[in-house]
Write a structure and sequence with these properties.
Pfam families: SnoaL_3. The protein contains no helices and 5 strands. The protein has 75 residues and is mainly β.
């Protein structure tokens, strides 16, 4: 399933932990896009865990929870 013309927005970003080698943030997200020719929208909450490596900061874990059980066509 490809999502065309996707727009992803992050709001209410809070850094829960920031240390020299690790960081954790939580946020609310929303998205819109076209799936199988129909406009869909979704929203939810997310948490990301970052670790510093020799290559820089990398996401090592991401948890996304939708506010609803599925994406819904935009009415």
């Amino acid at each position: 399933m490809a999502i065309r013309d996707e727009r992803y927005v992050v709001d209410e970003l809070t850094w829960v932990l920031v240390q020299e080698e690790a960081a954790v943030c939580r946020y609310r997200f929303s998205w819109t896009g076209i799936i199988d020719g129909q406009q869909h929208v979704g929203r939810g909450r997310g948490t990301n865990v970052f670790m510093r490596t020799h290559e820089g900061w990398q996401i090592v874990h991401e948890q996304l929870t939708a506010d609803s059980t599925r994406s819904m066509p935009d009415s």
